[in-house]
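Problem 12. The chain below contains 79 residues. Write out its predicted structure in C-alpha cell notation.
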Amino acid sequence: MAALLIKDLPPPLHASLRQRADRNHRSMAKEVLTILEQAVTAPCPPVPPLKPQKTFMSRKPISAALVLRIIRKGRACSL
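Solution.
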C-alpha cells in the first residue's frame, strides 16, 4: 500500500484533524484517509452551461483560403 507524508501541517489544522478523528473514534490516519476518499469519490458539481455566442452572419461567401488562414492563426476572424 502506498504511503503519504504531509510536511509543514499547520498546528491549527493538526488540532482540528485530531478533534475530528476523536469525535469519529478513528485514528488520525484513518480520518485523513476517509476525508480523501470522500473528496475523490464525490460527484463533481455540474458545469454551468456555456453562454450563447453571437453567430457570424455574412452576406458574402467565405473562401476556403480565408478559412484556412483563420485556422492557421488559431483565432476568430473579424470581418
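Discussion. Helices lie at 11-23, 28-41, 64-73. Students who got a different answer should revisit the alignment rule from Section 12.3.
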